[in-house]
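Re: zinc ion structure - here you go.
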Amino acid sequence: MVKFVCKNCDYRFESKKMKKCPYCDSAKISKELDAEDLVRELS
Ligand SMILES: [Zn+2]
């Protein structure tokens, strides 16, 4: 499962496939990085 966050309503959810926000039906969603991923991105 991958965590996603909706950029429209900030709703967080887990899904195997990213499609739409289940809350507001927006397609503006992105992967939510966990702390480990953030560290990797910044370095
Ligand atoms: Zn949403």
